[in-house]
Amino acid sequence: MKAMILAAGPGTRLRPLTDSLPKPLLPIAGRPLIVWNLLLLRRHGITEVIINLHHLGHLIEQALRDGSQFGMRIAYSKEPALLGTGGGLKQAEVFFGGEPFVVLNGDTLVEMDLSDMAAAHGRHDALATMAVRADPDAERWGAVELDEAHRVIRINGRGKNAGGGTGKRMFAGVHVMHPRLLADVPAGRESSIIEAYVRAIQAGEVVAGYDLAGYWSDIGTPDRYAQAQRDAEAGLIDLKSRLG
Q1: Residues 64, 73: Cα–Cα separation, whole Å
Q2: How distant, in Å, are the alpha carbons of 42, 56, 109, 162, 224 from that of 29?
Q3: pLDDT of 130-187, one tens digit each?
């Protein structure tokens, strides 16, 4: 299985930190944030990765090079204009070779069992699987509703009109998906992958939910960045466990 890390965003809310450094290179416990994600992928046997680049993307490419320093192979998908999550994935579509792949957000620090998530994706025979987590602010993040079979039925209130959900969760920014999900995503245009998810749900495709029980932090604001650094220093997420 291959993977994509989304790393093109400008990190506007973290300025001035991101004026000269892209958000995925901000250090957490002495290592760039994106390296934590690379090591998580490697720990689960995923060594072929593509990273999309836009804001200060050349610095990411300079830092990671071809990935050999991590025992990985890294390719890059450069976006002169931001394409969003949908357009970014569409541009990299050929990299996945028609097989299911993992997607991570380059600005998210997460501890989870990607192997188990991939296995659950297979058991559901799903078009895509979204990692979700309980959060009192699920509505603010974008509420995801599941049915009793743990299939996603609505995202932000859109999807299937009938049927009661089992409670609202937030999307944690980790996916396993088949490239078929990208079939109707417009090439060369900015779009959100959530639009493709909603279309798939409305068409009766299986989009599964996977409960993320481990550590998760979106490094989106100075306060959350500072908290993530404290969490790493406190051992709530352990880089050393990913180096073996």
Answers
A1: 10
A2: 19, 22, 12, 46, 14
A3: 999 987 676 666 789 999 889 999 998 889 876 666 678 889 999 999 999 999 999 9
- In the chain the domains, ranked by start, together with CATH numbers, are 2-235 (3.90.550.10)
Residue 28 in tokens: 């957490």
Rounded to whole angstroms, the Cα distance separating 214 from 111 reads 5
Nearest of 40, 66, 65, 47 to residue 2 by alpha carbon: 47
Count Cβ atoms below 10 Å from residue 110 Cβ, excluding itself.
22
Query: Rounded to whole angstroms, how far apart are CA atoms 118 and 122?
Result: 6
pTM: 0.93
Rounded CA-CA distance 207/146 in Å is 10
Distance CA 237, CA 136 (A): 22
